[in-house]
Amino acid sequence: MAATLISTVPVFALAEDAVYKPAVPGRPVPGASPFDEFSTAEQVTAGMDLTGKTALVTGCNSGLGYETMRVLAMRGAHVIGAARTMEKAATACAEVDGQTTPLVVELTDFEGIVAAANRVAEIDAPIDMLILNAGIMAVPELRQSNGIELQFAVNHLGHFLLANRLQDQVVASQQGRVVVVSSAAHKWGPEEGIQFDNLSGAEDYDPFRAYGQSKVANGLFSREFARRLADTNATSNSLHPGVIKTNLSRFLPPEDESDDEPRRFRYKSIPEGTATTCYVATSPDLAAVTGYYFSDCNPAVPNEHMQNDAMAARLWEVSADLTADYLS
Asked: Which residue in 205, 267, 279, 326 is the catalytic one?
């Protein structure tokens, strides 16, 4: 009998009754949007003309990344589509109507990330939307990259390096936006939020806890980046896209179709799962909003770890140390 997904994987839950602590006091507080969990990326960008804007999307070759690229290009943006290989990036870009440029970004290859950032610099255009979307989830057995647990390395550390290398181009935009795809699965993370003494994952590895830790890291990185960008026109926000069946879930056990227990969440379609990303990346209402977390195209409240400014600052310093040879 197939494994039951519900009994194996923790259910997502957002702390809607909690209080959100602004990352950058004095900046605008996001209000409710006209969109919800059923909205699609096309709907949240309807009527927009993104001509002249440049976006970079990691993980463009499938799932949410592909749909994000497709919709932004459809609205007129020049989308730099990043994938692990040039073949994957070029194939995805060729399938999309609009202006696209393929780019190789292998998030475990720090030298390759530097080369990719240099290639983007050659385009000589501000980056209006830097969308950090790529990721891996629930790797069954411990794997490492550069001595770091693989999910933390891919989901957080590679994106940390890429964003830092591209920061000047984001700041050069009239209103650059860094959009970090985190997850409500940050609640699966360790009790202490980030296990700074176990980033290798060698001690008591659990695939879901490690994934949750990487998603906490996504949120903390976005929050600290917002603070560091506070004196510029650039913003940084993170989000939960929803629960969507994509390649990201390839390591999860199959659902038991014979199970009578009702599912405690709704799977979103890929267009629905991409909506919050596109909303945060493009909505005029969020032009000055920074340091927040969104779900279902609206502000949401993450757990206390994702609002811990001391932890965010420490994570930034540790990440800078781990990528020091490649940051400059």
From this structure: 205
